[in-house]
Amino acid sequence: MSAELLALTAAQAGERVRARELSPGELFDAYRERAAADEHGSYLWVAEKAPDTPAGAPLGGVPVAVKDLFCVEGVPSSAGSRILEGYRPPYTATAVEKLVRAGAPVLGKTNQDEFAMGSSNENSGFGPVKNPWDPRRVPGGSSGGSAAAVAAGTAPWAIGTDTGGSIRQPAALCGLVGLKPTYGAVSRYGMIAFASSLDQCGPLTRDVTDSALLFRHLVGRDACDSTSLAFPEQVELPGSERLDGLRVGVWGLDEEGLDAGVAAVCRRAVDRIEELGGSPTEVQLPHAGHGLSAYYVIAPAEASANLARYDGVRYGPRSGDGDLLSLYEETRHDGFGDEVKRRVMLGTYALSSGYYEAYYGSAQKVRTLIADDFRAAFERVDLIVTPTSPTVAFKLGERTADPLAMYLSDYFTVPMPLAGLPAISIPCGLSDGLPVGLQLAGPAFGENRILDAAYALELALGFEGVPRGS
Amino acid sequence: MIDRQQVLHVARLARLRLSEQEVERMSSELSAILEHVENINELDLEGVEPTTHVVALENVLREDEPREGLPRGRALEQAPDAGDGGFRVPSPGQG
Question: How many helices (H) and strands (E) does chain B have?
Answer without folding.
Answer: 3, 2
